[in-house]
Structure formats: structure tokens, C-alpha cells
Amino acid sequence: MAVTPGGINDNKFIEFNEFGHSIVFDEKINEEVHGMKERPGDERERVVKRKRFLFSVVILFLLSLFLSGCALGHSAWWKEEVLLHDGQTMIVDRSISRGGRHELGQESPISEETARFTPPGTRKSILWKSEFDPNIGVAGLGLLAVDIVNGTPYIAAKTRLCPAYNLWGRPNPPYIFLKYTEGKWRQISLEEFPSEIKNFNVVISIEEERIKAAALSTGFVTIYSIRELNNELKQDEYRYIIREPMPQRNIGCPFEIYDGTYWRGAGSLLRQPTFEVCINECKNIDIKEEYCPCEKLFKSKIGGIENGKSE
Known about the structure:
Layout: E1 12-16, E2 22-26, H1 27-33, H2 42-68, E3 70-71, E4 75-83, E5 89-98, E6 100-101, E7 110-117, E8 126-130, E9 132-133, E10 138-139, E11 141-149, E12 152-159, H3 161-167, E13 176-181, E14 184-188, H4 208-214, H5 223-230, H6 248-251, E15 256-258, E16 263-265, H7 275-284, H8 294-299, E17 305-306, E18 309-310
Antiparallel strand pairs: 1-2, 3-6, 4-5, 5-7, 7-8, 9-10, 11-12, 12-13, 13-14, 15-16, 17-18
């Protein structure tokens, strides 16, 4: 029987196994096994199966979003005309990103917030950013004020959600103060924050549609629109910068700590008379040493708490 150079005759296909012995296949069977020849209807069936598979993937994806309360989120950018303490103004470019877990029907939480500005009389652009914190589930800080005193930028910010308030040491008054020095932002105390800065000068409550409407005619949110939007906030701590401690009940966040897995109440630690007793209480309520806040409670003043007593 004559064999063609490719090892194929008219009806047979010859292969060699690992021992060098020839193996003869019927051509029709061999073509089907090696995918060389399609049976009628194979391509149509594959198209139908592929469409069914893609449809199932889309349905499962949408169902997972529905069940988990997650959303893809979105981003927003806008400009604000900011009035500084000395009467000068500057434009601040602000942005937010939203995304993450949330209740159905509610907006996605803010996962990142930024503010970029160039101080008057300079050409240096400065960026402030509040990034997503996985222990909280949001960007922990929100901008309240940005100002320049003697050429140095300062920021006042608020914490988002009670876990962020506890994570930042339960400040009272409930602000986080930052100073831009040596090319980076550094947290400072209330006493270090310039007394010249008295008012909030940026939009506090971020509602994208209202901000967009306020900037429609000028391309930025004006000083007057910022005041108008902020005047709707009734909490004292958002009307001007408070420099005296507030009653903790007005802040409304119970004392909680992060134990490496979740946030949990730890109010009993505030009632301990000494550092040593506080440490023992951490052990009693199964708080690991690295998460025990007793050193902060007794070695520094945070949130109106000093020497284990709540103001």
C-alpha cells in the first residue's frame, strides 16, 4: 500500500507511537478526534452554548451586586473659590470617588477624597488626599477648611463614621488638624492650629448634583455658594471651628476599638483608675496587647479623656 509523503494515503492516517510502531486510523475517525473536521451543526451549537454561558455570567454578576449591596461607584471633580483668612482667594480642585458596600437605595460611600491648590503668590501645586481605609470601609477624613498662614498651608478635616473617629483618637473638638511641612501633611494639635483660621471655607456636605448646579454658571463653586450650602448644616461643630471640648454625648460616637477583625465596644476601659488596671481589663475582655488602647488613654489626652476619666 503506497503512502504519501505526509504519512496519509487516500483512506488511512498513520502515526507512530513511542516505540516506533505504526498506528493506523480510519481517516474519518482521526479527523473528528483531532478536530480537523466538524460535524454538521457543531458550530451552531457552540454559538448557542457560548451565548448561554455569557448570559449566565451577567446574571450572576448582577445578582451578586444586588445581594451584597455593592456598586461600581463613580467619581466627581469640581472647583471651589476658597476665601482665606486674610481676604485672599484661591481655587481648590476637589474630587471624590465612590464605591464599596452600602445599603440598597443608598449612595455608595466616599472611598477617596482629594484637594489640590496653589497658594497665592506661588507656583507650587499642593495635594491633600484622604484614601480608603479597609478597617473603616470609607475614606477616613473629609475636608472642612484649607488656609494659608505665613506661607504655610493648613487643613481642618472631619472624621467619617464612628470607627474613623475612634481610629483618629476621638478628638475633642471633633476635628483633625494638619500642617503641610517638608513636602508632606503632618497632624498637629489644636494648639498648633493657627487662631487666625476661624471658619470653614469649602463645601462640607458633598452632594454632587447640588455642587454641579452651583458651579454651572461660573465653572466653579463661588464663595457665596459655599456659604449658602454650608449654612444648611445645623450642627455647631460645622458652623465655625470650635476650640473648646464638646460634651461627648453631642458627638455621639461610643468608645470602640479595632481588635484586628472588627470594631467593638470597650467603654469599660474608660472606667479603670490606673494604667495597670486598664491593661488587665484588656486581657479580661480578650483584647490583644497590640490593640489595647490603655497607653493612649493614660499617656496622652484624646477625645476629652485623660488619666482614665471622661470629661
